Amino acid sequence: MVCAYCFNPTSVINSRLNKKSNQIWRRRRCLTCNAVFTTSEEINLSQTWMVRKNKTDIPFNRDKLFLSIYESMKHRKEPIDDAHQITHTIITKLKSTNNGLINSQTIATLTAVTLNRFDKTAYVYYHAFHD
Ligand SMILES: [Zn+2]
């Protein structure tokens, strides 16, 4: 990767694997201007997973999942944080069960079950929108 400022070669000065999110963070320093910046590497799920809905396969969209959860969380104090946490939980579960093609109903059911355990009101809101 080249420098963000002068486009000359950089070297990695530090790196860290975040096991929970399966991301690799790297600190890089430009060999020419000494600028330091951070990059991250993670699995691109939209190019890895497909979702089957009404016999059509579409790329998995984390934002779409997040928004459907966020919509059900608006009564809570920290809806964004909570929705991120629930989205993360659902994606972790999907990782252990799917082989690249996921039925949209599987995601909806898993989301409903997870929300029901987390917050009954959120579950009711989710159910009202997705049934
Ligand atoms: Zn530079």
Uncertain parts: none
Give the C-alpha Rg. Answer: 19 Å
Report the order of strands and helices: EEEEEHHEHH
Rounded average pLDDT: 91
Strand order of the largest sheet: 1-2-3
Number of helices: 4
Structural class computed from helices and strand pairing? alpha+beta
| Count of the domains | 2
Give structural notes.
The chain has 131 residues and is α+β, with helices and mostly antiparallel strands. Helices cover 41% and strands 26% of the residues. It has helices at residues 62-71, 79-97, 104-118, 120-129; strands spanning 10-18, 23-30, 36-41, 50-53, 56-59, 101-103. The protein folds into two domains: 10-41; 45-129, no CATH class. The model has no long low-confidence stretch (mean pLDDT 91). The chain is built from four helices and six strands, in the order E-E-E-E-E-H-H-E-H-H. The strands form two sheets. A three-stranded antiparallel beta sheet has the order 1-2-3, with no helix packed on it. It has a three-stranded mixed beta sheet with strand order 5-4-6. Bound molecules: zinc ion. The site of zinc ion has 8 residues, from loops.
